[in-house]
Design brief:
3 domains; 20% strand; 226 residues; 5-stranded mixed beta sheet; 3-stranded antiparallel beta sheet; Beta Polymerase, domain 3; Beta Polymerase, domain 2
Length: 226
Amino acid sequence: MSGIGPVKAKELVDQGITTLDDLRKHEDKLTHAQKIGLKHFEDFEVKIPRAEVKELFDSVKKVAVSLDEDYILEVCGSYRRGAETSGDVDILLCHSAFKHSDKHHGDLLHRLVKKLLDEEIITAKISEGDTKFMGVAKLPDHKHYRRLDIRLLSVDEYYCGLLYFTGSNIFNTEMRSHAQKNGFILNEHSLRPLESGQPGAALPVSSEQDIFEYLDYPYKKPENRK
């Protein structure tokens, strides 16, 4: 169940709580996130069709652009890799005026989440920080509640983040390993050359293709990153 890992599961089983009905009788033993996972357990088990992911993303993007035309958004994860269904909707958020060097990024994520709540697209918050939101969303004409994650990155981190959050995990591991073998450190924030064993300044990246070219790694379209 969403929000319950092996340690918590063992703790509950040791207390004789072994079924969903048992959990519903002992919700006081659950965190806020776990209570939401329990409430929407059946819905979260249902895969999201590709068309519904797009519809939900389009709704989020419409709200974002109505707030500020300089928002940049993209769906990542299995959807961007071309999957016909997804487990959740994972959106990468950026703003053209938000640089990594900025000490403050205002409420770029918070104001979008608030507006999505006002529009009743987001129905519940699991957690919300300055750069990451996890929650629940539902489209008006759809039956199921869906897990929604939104991550905010600065504009100079955007393409490294887009690469990373598109995945797959296997592809990301291969890319990071190749980068290290060739004297670079690659993560979701930046690509940096290793200088005397230490990461140097982040390289300018204006597209995913830039990352592949720096690393002399054959470019793969998202749908080929299995």
